Amino acid sequence: MEVLCVIYAPLVFFCSNRFCNLNFSGVPYTIQIIPKGDCSYCCPLDPKNDVTLHLSTRINGNKESLMYEMMGDDFFIGNNKTIVLYIHGFTEQATGPAPQTIKRAYMGRGEENLILVDWSTLSALPWYNHAIENTYFVATTISNFIDELVSKGVTLDRFHIVGFSLGAEIAGLVGKMQSGRLGRITGLDPAMPMYEWAGRLARLDKNDALFVDVIHTDGGVLGFDTPMGHADFYPNGGTPAQPGCDVEKIVEERRINDYVACSHNKAWKYYADSVVNPYEFMAVECKNVRDFERGVCKSNRETPAFMGYAADNHLRGNFFLTTNDRAPYGRGIDGIIAGEKLQSTT
Q: Where is the signal peptide (predicted)?
């Protein structure tokens, strides 16, 4: 069977179905020759292989176990640990730097059931618009998995979904699909391109879980700078360039992969570090970054919040802090005392 494929208009050509499985997946990008999705020239979606779930626990020696055939497995009922699902962003894959860094961080704690969601063939370069269209399919797959566990007795409040970029928007969709409320969603610099004018029903929103916390690092560029959750954290002001992301340093250190998305990627790097060092990301509530820089919110330092893993689910408002330019990123109390010197640290 032949499939009509359009790569870039006006280039049109015919190709066989074998091209649908031709992709280049490596670190850190996935490139798909032909997009997958629901369109006239797209390769068809494969429910079993296009979205896969990979379980990691200390019980299985930190090895990832493919879970597609394990839906509803009694394993999750036999323990009361939080079930964390991590959803990667555009062009990434579960074997890439971000998910694997998150995995190492959680396995170091050993206190949660971690599931890496891989949707790399649906989020491959250069098909960003198709990736957005595929988010509903991915969210539906994850939601069905959650429904299976809930039908076996697992409560919704045990689920914590962590999503980076487009993964954060998927997390919001999953929350919207539930009959009740998920326990927590953590949005790591939720994707802004093509979501700028979307309402709360189309993007991550505080109503998608009992507690929604968001870390903003590339606000106004690849991520949102406006509040989206119950608690919104703005490290180093929440906008580019984040510490360590100035162009000269990237070129000098030959970090070419960071050239476009360095500040965006800081969101998952900060979060992973917070799993390892949960109380090093002290933050202070403040109305806006200008007040934080001027030290207007000094009185709030007496009751600091924590960004990332240790964020309290009762937090409400906007929170600010500064970080180091490289790991370990957390600065402890210095991260809020140095608020007045924010511009000099970036």
A: none
Which member of 54, 264, 273, 274 is catalytic?
264
Query: Is residue 103, in this structure, part of any structural domain at all?
Result: yes
Q: Which helix or strand (DSSP H or E) is residue 317 part of?
A: strand 317-321
Q: With respect to residue 4, please indicate whether it lies within any of the assigned structural domains.
A: no
Residue 299 annotated as catalytic: no
Q: Helix or strand or coil: residue 219? A: strand
User: Which of 165, 225, 263, 273 is an active site residue?
Assistant: 165
What pTM does this model have?
0.89
Pair type for strands 82-87 and 112-118: parallel
Residue 227 in domain: yes
Q: Which residue in the list 54, 88, 120, 189 is annotated as catalytic?
A: 189
Residue 88 lies in a domain: yes
What's the pLDDT score for residue 65?
Answer: 64
Burial of 332 (0-12, 13-18, 19+ CB in 10 A): middle
The CATH number covering residue 240 comes to 3.40.50.1820
Residues with Cβ within 8 Å of 91's Cβ and at least 6 positions away in sequence, in order, are 28, 29, 30, 31, 123, 124, 125
pLDDT of residue 201: 86
φ/ψ (deg, to 5) at 216: -100, 125
Task: Decide if 189 is catalytic.
Answer: yes
**Annotation marks residue 264 as catalytic:** yes
pLDDT at 8: 38
Cα–Cα distance for residue pair 15/216, rounded to 1 Å? 42
Range of the domain at 216: 11-335
Rounded distance, CA 180 to CA 166, Å? 23
Cis ω for the linkage preceding 227 (within 30 of 0): no
pLDDT mean for each 10 residues of the chain (346 residues) = 37 45 59 89 90 82 57 60 95 93 94 93 94 97 93 93 98 97 98 92 95 98 97 97 83 63 96 98 96 91 94 98 96 81 44
